[in-house]
Amino acid sequence: MKTLDPTCAIAYSTKLLGDKWSLLILRDIILHKKTRFKEFRSSKENIATNILSNRLKSMKSYGFIELLDPEGTKKSRQYIATNKGLSVLPIIIEFYLLSIHSIDESLLNKSQMMTKNEILQNRNHFEKKKKESYLNFVNEQKIMKSVA
């Protein structure tokens, strides 16, 4: 990986996160609790396999995600957000708030409408609830790995 010289916090952050795929992958990890390569591939945005591989590798090297079981096989690999990755949640929510009013509600499914209402009703509560839920999910995954 190319070394990044931090001269501007915003420029540095955009280099670390790379492109839209990083935010969408972190969205899937944190909000949808996806952990596996094939689950990321099944997202409606249809990320190409090579781009997904590159983004996972980059996000791992920059400390946004880690492997739950680094010694596991390729098929058993599970990616989880680190604290640094979880710190991106407010950015994801802000992107959501930036555009949600531009999307016709008739295009949103029931789950998307519930999310919209929850965020608009109390953004801070939504963020706190999602962080807690994700951390509980990760702990459950770790327990399952240690039992197996």
Give the topology:
Layout: H1 9-17, H2 20-30, H3 37-41, H4 49-61, E1 65-67, E2 79-81, H5 83-86, H6 89-99, H7 110-121, H8 123-147
Antiparallel strand pairs: 1-2
Helix pairs in contact: 7-8
**Individual helix count:** 8
Overall geometric form: globular
CATH superfamily: Winged helix-like DNA-binding domain superfamily/Winged helix DNA-binding domain
CATH architecture descriptor name: Orthogonal Bundle
**Which ranges are low-confidence, i.e. pLDDT below 50, for 5 or more consecutive residues?**
none
Indicate the CATH topology.
Answer: Arc Repressor Mutant, subunit A
Number of strands: 2
Distance between the termini: 34 Å
Give the radius of gyration. Answer: 16 Å
* Class from secondary-structure proportions: mainly alpha
- Structural domain count: 1
On the 0 to 100 scale, the average pLDDT is 90
**Run of helices and strands:** HHHHEEHHHH
Helix content: 55-70%
The largest beta-sheet arranges its strands as 1-2
Our estimate of the beta-strand percent is under 5%
Characterize the structure shown.
The protein has helices at 9-17, 20-30, 37-41, 49-61, 83-86, 89-99, 110-121, 123-147; strands at 65-67, 79-81. It contains eight helices and two strands. The termini are far apart. The chain has a single domain (9-138), classed as Orthogonal Bundle (Arc Repressor Mutant, subunit A), CATH 1.10.10. It is mainly α and 148 residues long. The radius of gyration is 16 Å and the shape is globular.
